[in-house]
Structure formats: structure tokens, C-alpha cells
Amino acid sequence: MTNKSTVEQLPDGYLNKTPIFQFILLSCLFALWGCPVSLNDILITQFKSIFNLSDFASALVQSAFYGGYFLIAIPASLIIKKTNYKTGIIIGLGVYIVGCSLFFPASTMATYTMFLAAILAMAFGLSFLETASNTYSSMLGPKKYATLRLNISQNFQPFGAIAGVLMGKYLVFQEGDSLHSQVQKLSGDQLRAFQLEHLQYTLQPYKYIIIVLAIVLVLFVLTSYPNCKPSNTKTHEVKKVSFGETISYLIKNASFRNGIFAQFVYVGMQTAVWSFTIRLALELGAQNEREAANFMLYSFVCFFIGKFVANVFMTRFNPKMVLFIYSMIGTALLVYISFSSSFYAVYAAIFTSVLMGPCWPTIFANNLEVVDKKYVEVAGAITVMSIVGGAVVPAIQGFVSDHLHSMQHAFIVSAICFAIVGLHFLREYFKKEHSASAV
């Protein structure tokens, strides 16, 4: 007789019950990649003043970060496929620690390029973590609760994001006048000493992150985890298709192509808005970076509140129509930000975050729905790779800001992106309605 208290792996890779400690430890990883995402928004403001960068150049922080995700996503998935989820997580934590450690020589060398290299290395590690953890979370228990487990794990991410903003506010940003105004008064050796001093502040959050990562890495190494991979039985065999055949199919799938573009634009818009909220607040009258960081904190809180509110609406109304309305309201707010002369534009940027939350998972799920099941794994990986929009759109918005000499006016780039996302949801809504009528 089988002991029901024993965790057993089923033929399809799922478990008969969820191992609680392993699941909680895995879920903590979601907070660990939420933290550097929000710290990037701090670094953009810090580096712009310290290195006297254009808005385009400062946005390269996001280009390095999301470019790293893009470059390593498929190699990470192949390594995890050949080994297991736990190995992928351990590799990810190790590379993440290396990336954080590179901030120390970067601060000594005091070169922007070295910091970008450190951020790129961190992104390589985080790509391993996300590629392994999202699927692993869904597999650690009965199949019927897979989505619930993943949603629970994702709820850990806001804690990391908020922690990142708080560390940036109190450890990176300092009291007094804004960095820009202080830098303008200095030159020569005084300026060089000021830059080196403030680059040391940039190290502070990463010291604590390295300590936490080391503890989590040791725990993962010592903790026994199930394999969670389907057994090779005829029941669970799936007809294998070549990578070339899969890519050919996906390219010809118009709905999938549209979804990839919508995800690319959405991630780019979200990243651009968050990247430049602190800059917007400073441009419209915030006293210094520490005060302006409060508005970034409010944005993350609103983002996660918005996700829960949207879920209520989406259970009662057509999700695509709900998100079309969300996108149109968001577009209007971003247009207002672009042309308003009032500090209320900053609050509009904060409220825009309420409207972003449900977009990513809805586009992701829809992209998997419109492809044949035998192509779904590659389709999912390509959809994750569309996160590279976060490397492109902020750079475009920074470029526009440099040429218009106004970060505020450059928010029109984000407005156009949100409008494109809204039109995607509207098109998908009518397509589904048309299909239902035909049936």
C-alpha cells in the first residue's frame, strides 16, 4: 500500500502532492529577479548624472538587461532539457552572483561599459532562473493546480520589486540636492572624486543581494528536489517535430506573429514608463532622486493592485475587451503625460501601472492557444524572447527625449506602444467573436 503522505512523481512529470518547503524556496526565486528589475530604474537615473549620459545612453541599462534575457533564453532551455530544473536554477544563481560581483570592479574602473557588462551577466543568470522556475513551479504538485501554483509563486515577485526600489532609494540615492545639480557645480578632480564616491553607493544593494543569493544557493544545493520530467512511456510520447518545421509553422501563423509583436511592444512600453518615471518626476519639480523614487514605489504597488482588480473584471467580462479598454485608458494617460505642464503628469504615470498588470500573461496564454500543441514549447520560448522589447523601446524613448530636449514629451513613444497593444486585443476580440458566430 502506498503511503499517501509520500511525495511521488507521476508519469506525466507532475507530483501527487506539493512538497511545501521546496515550493516556498522555489517561489522565493521570483522575488530575486523582481529586485534587479526595479533596481535598473534606479541605475538609469544614477548613471545619467554620474557619467553625464544622454537619455538614449542611460536607457542602454535596459538594453543590456533585456538583451541578456533574449540571448540566453534558448540555450538555457536546452541545458535545462538535457539536465533538470534544479541544475538550471543552480547555474542561474551562480551566474547571477557573478553578475552582481562584477559591480565591484566596475565601480573601481568607473566606466559605464563595465557596469553594462555586469548587468548583462546578471541577465544571463536571471534568464536561467526564469526559464526553469516558471515551469518548475507549475510541476511541483497535482496537474489540476498547476496554474494556481504558478500564480502563487508570481505573487512573490512584487516583494522583490518593492525591496529593490527601497534599497535604491535609501542606499543608492542620497539626501540633498539632485545629482544633476550637484554635478553641474563640479569639475576636474572634485568631479572625479564625487563620481567615485557615488558609484560606491551603487554597490550597496548588490552586497546584500549577493549574501541572499549565496544563502539560497546553498539551500538549493542541500535540498532534495524531484525531477518533474515525464517518463518515457507510450502514453506520454509526443510526435517529435524538427526545429526548422516548428519555426516555419510559427512564421506562417498570423495570430502568433501578431501576438509576438504585441508582447514585444507591451514589454517595451512597460519598461520605458518605469525606466523614466523618476526622470519625469525630477523634470517636473521633485527635489531630488530620493524623493522621486517614492513615485516608482507607488507605481509598483499600483501595478500589483491592478492585476488583482483586472482579474475580477476578466472573470465577469470578455478578457480581451477588458484589456482593450485598459489599453485605451492607458494610452490617454500617456498622451496627457506627454503634453501636461502639471505635476499631475507624474500621478498619471503611476496610475498607468494599474492598467499594465494583466497584459503580459493574457498575451502569453493567447499565443499558446493559437498554435498546435506539438509546437507549444518553442512557441512559449519565442514568446518569452519577445521580452527583448524592453531593450528597444526605452532606447527609442531616450533617443526621442534627447532630440526633443524633454523626457516628458518623449512619453508619446509609450503612448503609441500602448495604443498598438490595445488594437491587438480589439482585433483578437473580433476574431474570436467572428469564429463563434461562424460555429
Automatic annotation (TrEMBL):
Provide this UniProt record's keywords sorted from A to Z. Cell membrane, Membrane, Transmembrane, Transmembrane helix
Q: Which Pfam family, giving just one, matches this sequence?
A: MFS_1
Membrane topology value: Multi-pass membrane protein
Subcellular location per the Swiss-Prot or TrEMBL entry: Cell inner membrane
One GO MF term on file is: fucose:proton symporter activity
- Membrane-crossing residues? 20-39, 59-80, 87-104, 110-129, 150-172, 206-225, 260-282, 294-314, 321-339, 345-366, 378-400, 406-426
What name goes with this protein?
Answer: Sugar:proton symporter
Protein source organism: Commensalibacter intestini
